[in-house]
Amino acid sequence: MHSKKQSPVKYYVGIDVGSASVRAALVDGFGTVVAHADQPIQIWEPQPDHYEQSSADIWAACCSVTKKVVCGVGASQIRGVGFDATCSLVVVDKQFQPLAVNCEGQNCRNVIMWMDHRAVSQVERINATQHRVLSYVGGVMSVEMQPPKLLWIKENLQESCWEKAGYFFDLPDFLSWKATGVTARSLCTVVCKWTYTSDGGWDDSFWEVIGLEDLVKDKYEKIGNHVLSPGESVGKGLTPEAAKDLGLPEGIAVAASLIDAHAGGLGVIGADVKGHNLPCENQPITSRVAMICGTSSCHMGISETPIFVPGVWGPYFSAMVPGLWLNEGGQSATGQLIDHVVRGHVAFPELQSKAAASAHSIYTYLNSHLDLIKKSLPVGFLTVDLHVWPDFHGNRSPLTDLTLKGMVVGLTLSRGLDELALIYLATIQAIALGTRHILETMQAAGHHINTLFLCGGLSKNPLFVQMHADITGKPVVLSKEVESVLVGAAILGACASGDFASIQEAMAKMGKIGRVVQPNHEHKRFYDKKYEVFLKLVEHQREYRSIMNSF
After folding, report:
1. Sequence-separated (6 or more) residues with CB below 8 Å from residue 229
2. How far is 380 from 374, CA to CA, in rounded Å?
3. Mind listing the pLDDT tens digit for each residue in 120-157?
4. pTM, full prediction
5. Taking a C-beta distance cutoff of 8 angstroms, is the pair 56, 175 a contact?
6. Helix (H, G, I), strand (E, B) or coil at 123
């Protein structure tokens, strides 16, 4: 008997640019991550609410991690590359050289990060126009979107940046340009962050009424007049220069990119759930929400027809899954908030020391410590007298109020590790309560959601996952590959290569379920009461601010 010769395994490279690091993965056609690497990138904070990065630093990190994951793999086996990134704003001049987005004139700092809130005045004026395009961002534009940032640049850096600028890129589009030399934009970025509509394109009247008529005059060349669907092949693939930089073969397919949260959604939301006894089995994909939780969190819900949800971004057509409408809820600080609360506590040095001695991460140690102090109570019940409102960086959804502040109610004079563990738990619960607030708003508008699909760094924390299941009352699905965002990016590369007929086919083949976490329904009454308190907290904050504003 003669065995058939096996064809070589096909691989796809997914490259993800997060807030603080760049990661790459080599992924096979079944969605298995076979190699992974990451590298930190620099963030500058020259003044409060100003966050900047360097596109050169980001690209160098992309090249470094990609070379690591493809090392030793045959060039002919690598079929495509997909990028995703945060929705940060990259500015370059007419020769594609970086331009400073700061008053110091530091050209290397040419990226305004997604979480930068410098354009508060500008976004207030944009929202005051009540222009029709705002109905596609939940009725109120976020300071984290690109139009207010562009207006800030024009008003504050007119000569040094605005007049010299040749192109304004969303970071995912900058990366596909860097790889291919083609300035085409992804439908995902321009629809979700720039007010482009999939049926009507750019609306001249919007840009004119907000004072950015310059962009209309050059037929949108600076912000994109060639738009591709995510996963569509860009240009002729990798240029010789980019191929050398990345350690990949020249000409391999490069996909139109995605925002990082959308790539995470792509990596998990289409997985086959048969045999897991989930309520979404035999239900349309629209019964699922993908929650991508890292520095911040995004809640991605899809629908067959447009659903307008107050305070939730969208509906965006084909911005994540082709042919379906997307609504995107979000929390501006989640992982960042947990770090802030834990590391700022007076007992943090003790925690750090004890975690190191036990060879555990600080969060694994905190979870174990909570199990020690809970006695006969369920862990979550330890916060019966401790409540947190989590909007330390404003509220993205569903209240769309960037002026809201964080709150903690129930503090004592205690300063030890027990108290640190409790405030950590209350913070995680507050984030989960915020997710419940977003989901209930989406459901009230017409979504029918019964299952959560989690990915991102925080999905590795079992306490975070269980609290989301218990507080929302919905089962939580975790993907087999914890790096779902990278799988999502690789899915783009797989589609661009032509190896899959559609994004949907690649999602079903490459997205895999790992573990399912069920809610404990016996705890429902406790969390219903916590949710009542949660909603009261923002009422009280608005009430006391109203009192002080009358001073």
Report:
1. 186, 187, 256, 318, 322
2. 9
3. 999 999 999 999 999 999 899 999 999 999 999 999 99
4. 0.91
5. no
6. helix
